[in-house]
Amino acid sequence: MSPEALRQQLEYYRDLGIKQIYRRMPIPTDIELPSLVPAGDTLELIRADIGDCTRCRLCKGRNKIVFGDGNPNARLAFVGEGPGADEDEQGLPFVGRAGQLLTQMIEGTSAKEGIPLKRADVYICNVVKCRPPENRTPEPDEMEMCGQFLFRQLSAIKPKAICALGSTAAKAILGGKDGVTKLRGKWHKWNDIPLMVTYHPSYLLRPYNQNAKRESWEDLKKVLHFVYD
Ligand code: SF4
Q1: Could you identify which of 17, 113, 130, 218 might form a hypothetical disulfide with 49, taking C-beta atoms 3.0 to 4.6 angstroms apart as the criterion?
Q2: Which atom of ligand 1 is nearest to the CA of 56?
Q3: pLDDT over 60 (residue 105)
Q4: From the CB of 146, is ligand 1 less than 6 Å away?
């Protein structure tokens, strides 16, 4: 990409309200980049920037934008793929069956491990803020666009660790092609923040996934002890 084309692309993103480009692309060193994340960025500012967003096609089918929920100073942040029907209805992440399982996993595992932790103590959000039709996987361009808000959220919260739930969230954050079975159980990094990948709770709800359940509990234990010990 020529320096001029890159400058135009960055200005286009800036006009859309995107102040920080995390996309992994080679940046020629002789280019002066536009300003990045606004100083003192907060969840409130990010939510205000999203507004009544129509930046990608997912806006067409949504009822409510599902921004995120939990402690804005959380030491641990969970990131899922996108809202489902219940989330779209209520405007809150992980409130359906998968959400109930996530709550059980967080609170049950921490109680067993002697860590006093409630769901409200962590932060929970998704890569895309609007429900994809028929709960399909978000398209790469939708994740690229909405992911800018996710990255600003994570930068504003600055958790001690991030837990990506499922392959889609892992790929969106880490930028690779590997799925959850390859990535889970090991520490990765996003912007110097340790990141663990584990199964999405909706996958664990399927009856034949006993091994995945056990592995998921192991992953979560690792995360909880790393963050709260
Ligand atoms: S998914 Fe994100 S970028 Fe797309 S319309 Fe919703 S808020 Fe905007």
Answers
A1: 17
A2: 4
A3: yes
A4: yes
